[in-house]
Design brief:
This protein is α+β, with helices and mostly antiparallel strands. The chain is built from nine helices and eight strands. The structure holds iron/sulfur cluster (SF4) (2 copies).
Length: 216
């Protein structure tokens, strides 16, 4: 299996291979799978694709996770691999650690993962542990935050998410106020402030959906 073949399978479901990780004994996955392919929304277009699925029409809970389970599960089956997800544990898989090990994501100044394509909109819908070793492309020489003016650090109006950390109650309190509508309707201002987030193509209505899950 080549990386190009894997990318083609993912692209058919508006996903992309957002990182490759060599697996070892500490990863908690069967030894017959030496490579893990992380999968993320391939923007623009992912949201229209996924919201047209049966999971978003049946009115049941967790449509995005159920879509991910069905689609990535079927992909893994076709590839002779094993699907793993960042939800539905235990076991809880170390997606953040895998993302950092992929060489395509780093810890940002605000503590969230920043990805070389998704920026602070980084999200992982799942991953496939593969029965073959795929050579990992050379990662970027330097993290994107190097040389960036770091607008993420000052973007949160109530100062709930800064270089000092994330104060969850302060974020929710701001979202309860009229000024919080800007985050609720188009996504977290910190995530949106990152230049990489801005070129990723994530739709405001997708971010709004996630904000509604976060702030119920
Ligand atoms: S805004 Fe700049 S410093 Fe902040 S996460 Fe994005 S690239 Fe890194
Ligand atoms: S959602 Fe809004 S209030 Fe919450 S951390 Fe992001 S910018 Fe701050």
């Amino acid at each position: 299996m080549t990386l190009a073949a894997l990318q083609a399978v993912a692209a058919a479901e508006l996903l992309f291979v957002s990182g490759l990780v060599g697996l070892g004994p500490g990863d908690g996955l069967p030894v017959e799978f030496p490579t893990l392919a992380l999968l993320s929304p391939d923007e623009p277009g992912f949201w229209d694709h996924v919201t047209a699925s049966p999971e978003f029409a049946d009115g049941a809970a967790d449509p995005l996770d159920r879509w991910s389970s069905r689609v990535i599960g079927a992909m893994a089956l076709g590839l002779g691999g094993m699907a793993v997800f960042p939800f539905g544990g235990p076991p809880w898989h170390p997606f953040q650690r895998w993302a950092l090990r992929s060489g395509r994501a780093w810890t940002s100044p605000v503590g969230f993962v920043v990805h070389d394509r998704m920026g602070l909109m980084a999200s992982y819908r799942g991953a496939i542990a593969l029965p073959v070793r795929i050579s990992v492309p050379t990662p970027a020489a330097a993290p994107p935050c190097k040389g960036c003016a770091a607008p993420c650090l000052a973007a949160c109006p109530p100062g709930a998410l800064t270089g000092e950390g994330y104060v969850l109650p302060a974020c929710h309190a701001f979202l309860d106020r009229p000024e919080g509508e800007t985050c609720l309707n188009a996504g977290c201002l910190v995530r949106r402030a990152c230049p990489l987030s801005q070129t990723y193509g994530r739709l405001a209505r997708q971010s709004a959906w996630h904000m509604r899950q976060f702030h119920k």
